[in-house]
Specification:
- This protein folds into two domains: 80 residues, Orthogonal Bundle (434 Repressor (Amino-terminal Domain)), CATH 1.10.260; 53 residues, no CATH class.
- The chain has eight helices and no strands.
- With 141 residues, it is mostly helical.
Length: 141
Amino acid sequence: MEVFFMIPPNEYLIDFGKRLKLIREERELSQEALAKLVDTSKSVISGYESGTNDPRQSMVVKLCKVLRISIEWLLTGEGKKEVASVDLLNKNQKDLLEMLKNDPQLRMVAKIQGDLTEEGKKDLLKYAQLLKNQRDRCGED
């Protein structure tokens, strides 16, 4: 009979996970929304946050770029947390980021959208298009 032992996550992974969760929540992102931004699954992000999954170097870089944080801070908790990666964005991305920063309702819609199923996202888009069309018709009168 084989016996399997659960190896407890090491302290590094737990601290990494705590920092990742902290910054994700500061950015008002769900695990699913963050997963989509870095092309992975919600369960992978959950594993990072709980300390059960060890991210590859390429994933750490993706997370830091998306969350605009320093690699040093995410890995060690030391150094400057925030980085000015806005310079890496194109004009459309900067404009969108500025709109999100200045509009709490738009941030809420983005957060809700991140938690929806694919069908729910399609419905939300249809509803937004319907509202836009109604507004456009009212503006033409």
